[in-house]
Design brief:
The complex is a heterodimer of chains A (453) and B (294). Chain A is mainly α and 453 residues long. Helices cover 73% and strands 0% of the residues of chain A. The longest helix of chain A is centred in the middle third of the chain and has 34 residues, at 203-236. The radius of gyration of chain A is 24 Å and the shape is globular. The two termini of chain A are 28 Å apart. Among the domains of chain B are: 43-130, Cytochrome c-like domain (Cytochrome Bc1 Complex, Chain D, domain 2, Orthogonal Bundle), CATH 1.10.760.10; 136-231, Immunoglobulins (Immunoglobulin-like, Sandwich), CATH 2.60.40. Chain B is 40% helix and 16% strand. Chain B has 8 helices and 7 strands; from the N terminus they run ααααααβββββββαα. Chain B starts with a helix and ends with a helix. Classes of the chains: A mainly alpha (453), B alpha+beta (294). Chain A binds chain B through residues 141-145, 150, 153, 157, 160-161, 164, 168, 171, 197-200, 202, 204-205, 208-209, 211-212, 215-216, 219, 223, 404-406, and chain B through 2-3, 6, 249-253, 256-257, 260-261, 264, 268, 271-272, 274-275, 277-279, 281-282, 284-286, 288-290, 292-293.
């Protein structure tokens, strides 16, 4: 009897070793392609920073934003990144609260995307300011009646909760790294030492951790809904055609879940291919994520139908102009690309099983992400170009908006920044939760506990 | 590289735009001989030069600049250059009447005013054509029904001789400037007085007070002088403090509605106390680990 028990324990221990070796692979092994990738991202960021310095010197005139279209690519980027960040709450909170089990290897992917995207959004909103040196004014002179102040509050709150929700479930893993990563530079060992919070895996510690995570999971759902609802209110609380809508909150939130799911699929795929994680991120996960993407896209499609067809049925003067511009006018090709290639075709294809295979889902997700970015541009710009009050004596160029090279490069730089945050995270922390994976494979807590002491 | 290319394109575009402007400026503006030969029958007198100066201040200064050197809000012809001044009076009269390109037509002005403007442009480069300006005294008297202001202009020396035919401007002071009342020019009569009726529908301050200002300005013969009087002749300024000083959504920072303050702060407090609870739990977590190692 004791023999059998010992043998089983031995097997579990080996299994755990295998998991730890696999999941710490990105931390231990630096591929040459990794360095090239980081260098490439740093280059894009450097170009973006150089363009931003130019913008600081010459002002926002280096962009194509003028009196009429005073919001453009930056605000589109901001809304897009906020949307992407919402997936953290979807995967780690909403699905977990619904007792969905298969998301375990995806929670950290979703959460790190959320944190990186919020950081990117906060950066780009400062870039959009003509006088960033007056940023502090919003904290000193801001009016609580203004949706912009609500947005500042809720975005920062969401960032804090997302960081905690990324960090807390990682504590047992960090404790494990603290024991194993003795070959790493001093600062890295010290970081693990501090961040592991003296984790020993006692029952009391588990209880405290679990309770804290539960608080966060419940807390992040309303805050996540609030962050994107408030972002939509930045538009919807105005009277302008195309924004003056009562369904903007849920419309934005559903769109955010859609693009967020696509972003998770993209990162899942990269991680799976790069580190041979096929046995952790399986075809089943892609299948389920694709189904989730279909679900979120269907909800978004429903809101799109409401958002466009109801005004299109009534064709109130200015709304009609706006709708005509989107359906048949200047923005029509982009609009139909977004609606068809970025939403309808993905939904249709992913209904069929072959299109829920990893590679197919990847391609579809990339289309969804591109469509989602252009969609944000279509929400911001055409409305800006239709001012309510007739304007006179404006130069012809004020009536159009085409992003300039500097502002496009700054936006590219912001994406590179988001990617860099994720990349560096991958290098320091396990992207797939070690402890939870081991736990799900049936390895007993005692063995895991011993391995991180 | 793309950046440099775009800058190059920008430079080329700027050059094209500017060169086309230069072409527009340098193409000769031909005036027929008969127009150029037209005789200015209005002699240079202080009075009509003053009229010209007023018109210049009103209609020309924005483009041609206060010194008439062409450096106004936009680049334009210098009116004090030798090239400009060597034209005949008739040619200048024709050009400002007809206009060309950016230069608007001023046919709407009376003919004598246009000639006065020509005279003024001549005086600009040759100030000795008119005598030096002297000081005068400007007094105001008021009378009611109808409410009117009378300006009384006398010589500033002890003789106190009334001065006739001097243009006085009347204004009502507003928050951010002066509103002109009376006619475009209000010359004094032989007794040195000119009267202007104050309209009775002007809104004053909360007591209905109006400050009426009289000025002698832009005059060649006399230096600028002004005096003012305050009368309760206006309508009372209606204020809507009861609406605007309330706590409303459109109010200032310290005028936020109570319900909004309560709601917003309750949400912030609720969410952040949960966050602080979690951070506090982290400290407890650490403590729990320490007990174990002992």
């Amino acid at each position: 009897m004791r023999e059998v028990y010992r043998k089983e324990e031995q097997e579990q221990r080996l299994q755990l070793e295998q998991i730890v070796t696999d999941l710490t692979l990105p931390i231990n092994k630096t591929y040459p392609s990794f360095k090239i990738w980081v260098g490439f991202l740093l280059l894009l960021i450097a170009v973006g920073v150089a363009m931003y310095v130019q913008q600081l010197i010459y002002g926002l005139s280096v962009t194509d934003m003028r009196d009429i279209a005073s919001w453009g690519l930056y605000i589109s980027d901001f809304v897009f990144l906020i949307a992407v960040s919402l997936v953290g709450s979807l995967i780690t909170a909403i699905l977990k609260l619904s007792n969905v089990k298969w998301t375990t290897p995806l929670t950290r992917i979703a959460e790190v995307i959320a944190v990186a995207a919020v950081v990117g959004a906060l950066t780009i909103i400062v870039v959009d300011m003509g006088r960033p040196d007056r940023l502090w004014h919003i904290f000193v002179y801001g009016r609580i009646q203004s949706p912009i102040v609500w947005d500042i509050i809720v975005v920062n709150t969401y960032l804090v909760i997302s960081l905690l929700l990324l960090y807390l479930p990682m504590i047992p893993d960090i404790a494990l790294l603290r024991q194993r990563m003795n070959n790493k530079p001093k600062w890295q060992q010290k970081t693990y030492q501090i961040l592991s919070m003296g984790w020993q895996g006692t029952d009391e510690q588990f209880k405290i951790l679990e309770r804290s995570i539960n608080v966060l999971i419940v807390l992040i759902v309303p805050v996540a809904l609030a962050i994107h609802t408030v972002t939509s209110w930045l538009f919807a609380t105005t009277l302008r055609p195309g924004w003056d809508s009562t369904i903007f909150g849920p419309y934005f939130v559903s769109g955010a879940f859609m693009v967020g799911a696509a972003a998770v699929i993209l990162l899942m795929f990269i991680v799976r291919i790069r580190y041979n994680y096929a046995k952790y991120i399986t075809d089943y996960h892609f299948d389920m994520m694709a189904k989730l993407l279909v679900l979120t896209s269907l909800v978004y499609l429903y809101f799109n139908i409401n958002e466009y067809l109801v005004p299109a049925y009534k064709m109130k003067t200015l709304d009609g102009e706006h709708i005509n511009g989107l359906f048949f006018g200047h923005f029509s090709s982009m609009f139909w690309f977004v609606q068809i290639a970025g939403m309808v075709i993905p939904i249709f294809l992913m209904i069929f099983k072959p299109f829920r295979k990893p590679k197919a889902v990847l391609v579809i997700s990339i289309f969804v992400i591109i469509g989602a970015f252009l969609k944000r541009f279509l929400i911001v710009t055409p409305t800006m170009l239709h001012p309510f009050l007739p304007v006179q004596n404006y130069p012809e160029s004020y009536h159009h908006y085409t992003p300039t090279i500097p502002e496009s490069l700054i936006v590219v730089g912001s994406f590179a920044g988001v990617a860099l945050v994720i990349t560096l995270f991958l290098k320091v922390f396990p992207i797939i939760p070690i402890w939870e994976t081991a736990h799900e494979k049936g390895i007993s807590n005692g063995i895991i506990k011993n391995s991180c002491k | 590289m793309q950046m440099r290319a775009s800058i190059n394109i920008l430079i080329i575009l700027v050059c094209i735009v500017f060169s086309s402007e230069i072409v527009a400026q340098t193409s000769p503006w031909l005036v027929s001989e008969s127009d150029a030969a037209k005789i200015n029958s209005f002699p240079v007198t202080p009075k009509n030069v003053a009229v010209g100066k007023n018109i210049f201040a009103q209609s020309c200064v924005s483009c041609h600049g206060s010194k008439a050197d062409g450096n106004g809000l936009m680049k334009s012809t210098s009116l004090i250059s030798a090239v400009f001044q060597k034209q005949t009076d008739g040619a200048i009269f024709y050009k400002l009447s007809i206009g060309k390109g950016q230069m608007p037509s001023f046919k709407s002005l009376k003919e004598e005013d246009r000639w006065a403007l020509v005279n003024y442009l001549r005086v600009l480069v040759n100030p000795t054509m008119v005598p030096a300006a002297v000081d005068v005294k400007l007094d105001i008297t008021t009378s009611e029904s109808p409410n009117s202001v009378t300006a009384f202009v006398t010589a500033s020396d002890s003789t106190k001789t009334p001065i006739a035919d001097i243009d006085v401007h009347f204004y009502v002071k507003r928050d951010f400037g002066m509103m002109r009342i009376g006619h475009a020019s209000n010359p004094t009569s032989a007794d040195g007085k000119v009267t202007v009726v104050v309209p009775d529908d002007i809104i004053g301050n909360s007591e209905g007070n109006l400050t009426i200002v009289t000025k002698i300005e832009n005059n060649f013969l006399y230096n600028d002088v002004e005096s003012s009087v305050t009368k309760q002749w206006g309508k009372q300024l209606a204020t809507y403090d009861e609406q605007f000083n309330q706590r409303e959504l459109w109010g200032a920072q310290d005028k936020a509605p109570i319900w909004l303050l309560l709601l917003a702060n309750a949400i912030i407090l609720g969410v952040w106390s949960a966050i602080f609870y979690v951070i506090f739990s982290l400290a407890k977590l650490k403590k729990a680990g320490k007990i174990f190692t002992k």
